[in-house]
Amino acid sequence: xxxxxxxxxxxxxxxxxxxxxxxxxxxxxxxxxxxxxxxxxxxxxxxxxxxxxxxxxxxxxxxxxxxxxxxxxxxxxxxxxxxxxxxxxxxxxxxxxxxxxxxxxxxxxxxxxxxxxxxxxxxxxxxxxxxxxxxxxxxxxxxxxxxxxxxxxxxxxxxxxxxxxxxxxxxxxxxxxxxxxxxxxxxxxxxxxxxxxxxxxxxxxxxxxxxxxxxxxxxxxxxxxxxxxxxxxxxxxxxxxxxxxxxxxxxxxxxxxxxxxxxxxxxx
Length: 268
What we know:
Layout: E1 2-6, E2 9-11, E3 18-19, E4 24-25, E5 32-34, H1 36-52, E6 55-61, H2 67-76, E7 80-84, H3 94-110, E8 118-123, H4 134-142, E9 146-156, E10 159-167, E11 170-177, E12 180-184, H5 196-204, E13 208-211, H6 251-264
Parallel strand pairs: 1-6, 1-8, 6-7, 7-13, 8-12, 9-12
Antiparallel strand pairs: 2-5, 3-4, 9-10, 10-11
């Protein structure tokens, strides 16, 4: 069994900065990290491998510097790592990104055992975009079942049973056969830190394999900016409106004042 984990390199900050002239994110001087939920994905893959066996393959699409998060995945215990890097991939939206990732997965599968079962793991969303679209779109590209907002997963043979958060305080139990794709919530586990031996192996014994558009035999009309169906007109940080209000007095007095202010603001 192959366990694919899709990871992304994201800005390691809580507040983004935007260039007011170009309306693009300012990335210069900002440290990059692995998307936090993707670490949960690596940990889940490790837990599954420990119980059921399999080969963990980390995938990422980005510029050459994204190799660093793949090295981190290798240090955590991933067996192989692939970086999809090509100027033709630049400017991709979620649709073009998921298409490119699907090409890589199909190519890796074609080079392995015939009809080998597999599982694709994604973080539910990336902290730099918060779209939660790549996982579902990737599943559609691969033509496999998908389960999102997963907080727990169990595997038995070629089937998985998951707990999916449907609404607050409402959990749905879903079972499906492999191959399948799951996108995870952070509550599913606590990622372990890499060991020193794991870090050394990641840089001295393991390799990051590069895949470009030519190797993937990609249709240029479906990748990068050309293959993107969405266009970003503007990125901005919303301005704070109003001021914070601190209420004082007894509970009844504060309740009355709060209700009066809400009425004045036409909240109700």
